[in-house]
Amino acid sequence: MKQLRYVLWIGVALAAILLAYISLRTPSQNGPGANKSVAGSHFGGPFTLVGADGQPFSSTQLAGKPYVLYFGYTRCPDTCPTTLNRLVHLRREVGLGDDSFRIVFITVDPARDGPKEVGSYEKAFGAPIIGLTGSPAQIDQVKKEYGIFSQKVPEAGGDYSVDHTATILLFDRNGKFAGTIAPDEADSAALGKLKNVTAA
Amino acid sequence: MFLGRTAAALAALLLLSCAPKKIDPPQVSISGAWSRATVAGQSTAAVYLTIANNGGGDDTLLNASTPIGQATLHSSAMDGAVMRMRPLERLDVHGHSTVQLKPGGTHIMVTGVKQPLIAGSRFPLALHFDRSGDRRIDVEVRSASTAGESM
């Protein structure tokens, strides 16, 4: 009887170890693997945010043309301007004009990025870019829907920067998710994807 | 006598091992410094440049300063799909090596930029090295839409 009890306890311990192993292996929703599951049924969806003119901007306004979504923040010195400038250049290389697909920039830092700030990229790159902001709740909702992670990181002097998912999300003219471009992906591969989504 | 000789030999050995090694000085030069043009509403900029050390000795970039804002050394790195940017305490520039500060990697972040940076203009930047001291350079402001770049 006592032996049976030991065996049962060992069984319980093994089950606990197995459960811990499985839960550790499951990728976190916010982690680097987050956009692997983007094709799932819960990915994306309609949203209403605030445009550079301070007016509500509904995702229905994007219908009819392909578009790319990129999340960032305007005080981002390096990655965000690099990525948006790259998208502007790639759109020229696609060769179908600045309206062949829309470039949509959504801030993950609504506390510092108002309509004026998110509108600055359009002027900075001399090409149409739709800058969007919103209330913290609106931004949280759209981040959740699109699997975007962001986290404030304190800087010297009470300032902060923001770590964020830097993946570019592609959508066709019907608003259907059509793939991603990684920031470190080669231009040739990125151009191929953009040509496909504009031709579709 | 024998003891004295041994002691002298030991002392000589000790002296030899403590003697400063002949250290080549670093020879640091900076080139190709540029920054993207900004517009009203943008208060942050990044400076990219190349540091070449043609000397044999190592050096370290400790920090930078510019009258246009607060300069700090930063690195950007992908962690899966997430871009993480962190302050760098120092940047080693080993002897006979070249370090590139470029988009998507190590850069000098400038915050609190009050006036937009106009394409074609220049602004001063001082780099403070541990051994080479201060190097003053001009940073060229490039039009954002023509500064072709990929990470």
What this model shows, in words?
The complex is a heterodimer of chains A (200) and B (151). Helices cover 36% and strands 22% of the residues of chain A. Chain A has helices spanning 2-25, 79-94, 115-118, 120-125, 136-145, 187-199; strands spanning 48-51, 56-58, 67-72, 102-107, 130-133, 150-154, 160-165, 168-171, 177-181. Chain A has a seven-stranded mixed beta sheet. In chain A, α2 links the parallel β3 and β4. Residues 25-40 of chain A have low confidence and may be disordered. Chain B has 151 residues and is mainly beta. Helices cover 11% and strands 48% of the residues of chain B. Chain B has one helix at 2-18, and strands at residues 28-36, 45-53, 59-65, 70-79, 82-87, 91-93, 97-101, 106-111, 122-129, 133-142. In chain B, a hairpin with a 2-residue loop joins β4 and β5 (82-87). Chain B is elongated and about 80 Å long. The mean pLDDT of chain B is 88.
Residue fraction in strands of chain B: over 45%
Broad structural category of chain A: alpha+beta
Overall pLDDT of chain B: 88
Residue-averaged pLDDT of chain A: 86
Give structural attributes:
heterodimer, A: 200 residues, alpha+beta, 36% helix, B: 151 residues, 10 strands
Q: Helices and strands in order, then pairings?
A:
The complex is a heterodimer of chains A (200) and B (151).
Chain A: H1 2-25, E1 48-51, E2 56-58, E3 67-72, H2 79-94, E4 102-107, H3 115-118, H4 120-125, E5 130-133, H5 136-145, E6 150-154, E7 160-165, E8 168-171, E9 177-181, H6 187-199
Parallel strand pairs in A: 3-4, 4-5
Antiparallel strand pairs in A: 1-2, 1-5, 3-8, 6-7, 8-9
Chain B: H1 2-18, E1 28-36, E2 45-53, E3 59-65, E4 70-79, E5 82-87, E6 91-93, E7 97-101, E8 106-111, E9 122-129, E10 133-142
Parallel strand pairs in B: 1-10
Antiparallel strand pairs in B: 1-2, 2-7, 2-8, 3-6, 3-9, 4-5, 4-8, 9-10
